[in-house]
Amino acid sequence: MAPALQGGVKPSNPKNQARSLKRKRGEEDLSKLQKAVEELDPKEAEIKDVADLPLSTPTADGLEASHFKTLTDIQRKAIPLALKGKDCLGAAKTGSGKTLAFLIPVLENLVRKRWTEFDGLGALILSPTRELAIQIFEVLRKIGRYHTFSAGLVIGGKSLNEERERLSRMNILVCTPGRMLQHMDQTAAFDVDNLQMLVLDEADRIMDMGFQSTVDAIIEHLPKERQTMLFSATQTKRVSDLARLSLREPEYISVHEAATSATPSTLQQHYVVTPLHQKLDTLWSFIRANVKSKILVFLSSSKQVRFVYESLRHLQPGIPLLHLHGRQKQTSRLDVTSSFSRAKHSCLFATDVVARGLDFPAVDWVIQFDCPEDADTYIHRVGRTARYERDGRAVLFLDPSEEEGMLRRLEQKKVPIEKINVRQKKQQSIQNQLQNMCFKDPELKYLGQKAFVSYVKSVHLQKDKDIFHLDKLPLEEFSASLGLPGAPRIKFLKGDNAKALKNAPRQAVSDSEEDSEAETKKNKEDKKKEVRTKYDRMFERRNQDVLADHYAKMIGEGGHEKDHEQDADEDDDFLQVKRRFNHDEISDLSDAEDNGAEQRADKKAKVVPIGNAEEALVIDSKRREKLLKSKKKLLKYMGKGTKLVYDDNGEAHEIYEMEDEDQFREKGPAETQRVKFLDEERKRVQEADIADKQLFKEKRREKKEKRKAREAAESAPYEEPEEGEEEGEDVEMSDADVETEPSAKRPKKWFEDASEDESKPSKRRDVAAAHEPETLEELEALASGLLN
Question: Does pTM surpass 0.85?
Answer without folding.
Answer: no
